[in-house]
Amino acid sequence: MRVGLRATHLINRIFTHSVGSASAVRWRTAHIKLLCSSSDESRGSRSSLLRHLTSKIQATGPITVAEYMREVLTNPLMGYYVRNDMLGPDGDFITSPEISQIFGELIGVWIISEWIGAGRPKQLQLVELGPGKGSLAADILRVFTQLHSVIGDASVSLHLVEVSPVLSRIQAQELTRTCSHEVDNTDTPVYCSGETATGLPVSWYRRLEDVPAGFSIFLAHEFFDALPVHKFERTQKGWREVLVDIHPEKPEQLRFVLAPSPTLASSALVQADERRSHVEVCAEGGVLVQQLARRVAEHGGAALIADYGHDGTKTDTLRGFKGHRQHHVLADPGSADLTADVDFRYLRRMAGGGVACMGPLAQRAFLKNMGIDARMQVLLRNCTDASTRKQLINSYALLTDPAQMGERFNFFCLLHHGRLVQPQVLTGLKLEKRSPAQLPVAGFTELSYS
Asked: What CA–CA distance (Å, rounded) separates 235 from 169?
């Protein structure tokens, strides 16, 4: 069966399932990464972070933008992600799984389609990097339950890479309810484990390399854009790294400066054929993609990366978000989220030739290829409540409208090379010779209902 038709059949099964009724659609409040509290304690913490940064700069000199982002976001005591209640009532921006469960359902169909395309391995590990509050994983697992007859007796497990103890407990509540338990031994790779209501094992890890080897589908949704980036500018003397320094006239403010001479990062991370005048490079993202590519090449599977990004065309994208508004990245460090668009061309280069790369493809095209229009038709046809219909239409617009998330968000995947080559056909005593031909991949190939 062609992959396009296979995905169509899976989607049809999901659409006609009882969960597909409009009354069953769950609507979530849209808050993942949240605004810093305005309490005196929070303001004191932010002041402490600024003092920490200025002390570091005074002691060792200007710091890289990557180091600044790392301190602001993940400092163990004062970092934005550490201190803030990321699931509070006031969100800085909306993520797709929080808009509608339809998003997660279609990702679940994509995973099973790729598992079937790989020959239905006996093992299927779903690995999510930075799973937020577990909403995406919960929607995917619900699809797995609906398609249990398709998965059969394959061994399915969920593996979450999460460094935040607070978020891991929230994820456990969402995915396993009261079935989870934390491991006391801090040296063990698995620091928390449990089971879903259907008996599917769930494990938590601090690092990707701790996840067991095996056929895996890796998911990274709005994960890479939060990783620290180095910034570089082209000058008459060559590439110079952008650094963060103390303002000479305002000692309580920070400013951007250029390194007076090449740094190790500017010498190693900027490509010789680079034509842009300003470049952002996420070295951590490059290392992570290399790990994903190696695992896919050695053990099979795929990696699906979904994020705001570009294909090596944009320049200065580093920005802060506070209260649904952009916020200067150096102002009041620790009070706002920091993010930079993902450079998918860089990820493709770092992935190397051991895997096949597809994308980036705009979210609008990916979701339409996955059948979101057909899903919406079913929901609207079965929905009589005016308020629910309005929510359905609004969520569809948020996900697919080019002016909202439809064109700004992109999908990119790594696949095992064997997944894309037509097998040779046995004819008599000889193998019929065929030139390698790409097989269609759900989401990245237009869906056909013929």
From this structure: 48
Both tokens of 12, joined, read 């049809």
Q: How many helices (H) and strands (E) does the chain have?
A: 15, 20
Q: Please state the domain extents for the chain.
A: 84-229+282-417
Question: Token pair of 145, please?
Answer: 């339950």
Convert the pLDDT of each residue in 330-362 to its tens digit. 999 988 889 999 999 999 999 999 999 999 999
* Distance from C-alpha of 71 to C-alpha of 75, rounded to nearest angstrom: 5
Q: In sequence order, which residues have a C-beta less than 8 Å from that of residue 424 and are 6 or more positions away?
A: 431, 432, 433, 434
Distance CA 55, CA 49 (A): 10
Find residue 246's DSSP bridge partners.
254
Kindly report the CATH number that applies to the domain delimited by 84-229+282-417: 3.40.50.12710
CA gap 350, 305 in Å, rounded: 14
When pLDDT is averaged across residues 35-40 and rounded to a whole number, the result is 38
Question: Of 96-105, 166-175, 200-209, where does mean pLDDT reach its minimum?
Answer: 96-105
Residue 279, classified by CB atoms within 10 Å of its CB into exposed (0-12), middle (13-18) or buried (19+), is buried
Helix H or strand E segment including 40: helix 40-60
Tell me which amino acid residue 52 is: H
Q: How many CB atoms lie within 10 A of CB 365?
A: 18
Radius of gyration of the chain (CA): 23
Q: Which of 48, 52, 85 lies closest to 67 in space, CA to CA?
A: 52
Q: What is the pLDDT confidence band of residue 80, given thresholds at 50, 70 and 90?
A: confident
